[in-house]
Amino acid sequence: MEKSSMLRWGTACLLIFSLSIVPVGAAEKKPHKVGVSLEITGAASFLGEPERNTLVMIEERVNKEGGINGHPLKLIIYDNATDSTKHVMALKRLIEQDEVVAIIGASTSGNTLAGIPIIEKAAVPSISLAASVKIVEPVKKWVFKTPKTDALNITKLLTHAKKMGYKKVAIIHSDSGYGVSGKEEFDKIAPKMGFTIVGSETFGDKDTDMTAQITKIKASGAEAIVAYSASPAGSIICKNHKQLGMKARLYHSTGWASQQYVDLAGDAANGVFLSSGRFLVMDQIPYWSPYLPVLEMYKNDYENKFKLKVNEFGGHAWDAIMIIMKALEKVGPDKDKIRNEIENTKNFLGINGYFNYSPTDHNGLDLSSFVMIEVVNQKFKLIE
Amino acid sequence: MRAEVLTLNRSKERPLDIGTQILQFVISGIMIGSIYAIISIGFNIVYNATDAINFAQGEFVMLGGMTTIALFHGAKLPLWASFFLSVGIVTLVAMILERMTLHYQRERQVVNLIILTIGWSIFLKGSAMLSWGKDSFDLPSFSGSEPIQFWKATLLPQALWIIGVGVLISGGLHLFFKYSLIGRAMKACSFDRISARLVGIDDDWIVLFSFALAAAIGSIAGIIITPITFMAYDYGGMLGLKGFCATFLGGLGNLYGSIVGGILLGILESLGAGLISSGYKDAIAFMIFLLILFFKPSGLLGKETKERV
């Protein structure tokens, strides 16, 4: 054979060979586009950042494994900088320009509530990662959420307080959307459970001292204090509570459930009760618990990939994208059908617990998604 | 076991009379007010030397706290060494910033200076976020965290440190401006820059020195409050704002006004939160602030404003 024809043959072989290693078909299927608007920077970046990381991690993994029924998953992620105007703009862009089939976001209650009218009008299924019960009550047709509601959180705390025999309770809450929403639920739930509310105080997340508020609560004769905040200010409350030598028990919401906040409060954190998801006390859950595998899987995946400590917030995003992908796998990129499929999600076990969505419940979780924790020796201890 | 816990927790809270409550509010107010006062002194030093408000003052406070945390938790230095080292570092940072930017403002237009300090504050905040992340950190209290009984009210040992350092700084500055050569030169500049220059005072160095001093004082404030309030990259803004209010309340340009204004603001906030409503805490403090400015626009101890010719 002469040289030039050998070259031609070689090239042809190489071409055929290179074609055969590209999976035929995968490139042809259109990607499923899911829009995301999160608080990646700004005041709530402690929520948005782990959530973004989680979503990126899942997108990579799913696409490596061949996508959803062969369709790659494409996440379009915008940073709304913890600003409701920017969140609304991001939603408009996702809906009109990017033409996504579902939306995840936002991480704060304030931003989510600001975006609901747009989502409802555009009729796009969406899953919020924020706490307030107002997001799902009354039920909005197109809006779901994965984090546990503040109403459930408070019910869990007060159930424990009742068991302890307390009758007079007070609340101290931050003036953020999270704190105010918690206070409103507290005002509704506590009297129904037979408690007398003797004090109600507020503080700013950047405040440096809450002794004035806690002195007032002390004077009111409260037996239990519910602190509702999702910032380091919650740790200052522990310190002030100890400084004033209070006998009233301190309860914290899930917003304070972070080892970092316990470390900040130091030994003043000991004896605090809080309710939170199982994520925090994963190491104390019995081996046979059905909740354990999914928690461990998420933790290992996240920590191996990012070399960062995982927290529960990212889990909200994990649940949301899983629920959306399950729907996409079943019905494809049809917004109406995806919505119905999400609403029919039954017994899906995520990071937050078992989800059972229904036409009247767009949160899908119940009290079983919470556990009670006590801080002992500055560590979280599962007590029930 | 459970029953034991129950009885322990059921023990009644001792009733708290209104006198004790007010005492507690005032003590807390003085503690927080001392911080505002120290921060406010920093504003005034720079104002006296340049006629400008240093918007990076709050960031110096933050930087002081964060640098100490890095040295103490990261480099494992003893607390006192971290304290002095980080005051030195923050002072140095302020001096470098001054030499690299403000120094070249030959005209010294107040607006330009203010905008430059805003630039610094954004730069410092951003750098702090990139180097230390967004989490809050703490430092151990300087001398234990067992509350001290004061009459029927309580306070933390760290509060005594804060008040004590506040007194030391204001006393030291009083002597500094009265007796030391450089202090008196700074004072001369604040009265009349051109005459000061005519008698041979190099006002360029005075500006540098004033920023260095303001940064040192700000960083001390940041370090001593960290055991109580923690520190994160974004704490500077709020503390700076409160110090700024204290400055205006006491009278811009007056060091003693800083002390009066800071402590008054702290007590007003605390009493407002305790006696009226914690929801309106800031509103009450700011309303009184506005009222004072309405009746005495130059602040409580400020000199009457006069037209400069």
Give a quick set of tags describing it.
heterodimer, A: 384 residues, alpha/beta, Rossmann fold, 2 domains, seven-stranded mixed beta sheet, 12 helices, elongated, B: 309 residues, mainly alpha
How would you briefly describe this protein structure?
The complex is a heterodimer of chains A (384) and B (309). Chain A is of the alpha/beta class and 384 residues long.
What does this entry look like structurally?
The complex is a heterodimer of chains A (384) and B (309). Chain A contains twelve helices and 14 strands. Chain A is an alpha/beta fold and 384 residues long. Chain A has two domains: 32-148 and 292-366, Response regulator (Rossmann fold, 3-Layer(aba) Sandwich); 151-276, Rossmann fold, CATH 3.40.50.2300. The model of chain A is unreliable at 22-26 (pLDDT under 50). In chain B, strand 1 and strand 2 form a beta hairpin. Chain B is mostly helical. Chain B has a domain at 30-140 and 155-236. Chain B has a two-stranded antiparallel sheet with strand order 1-2. The chains are: A alpha/beta (384), B mainly alpha (309).
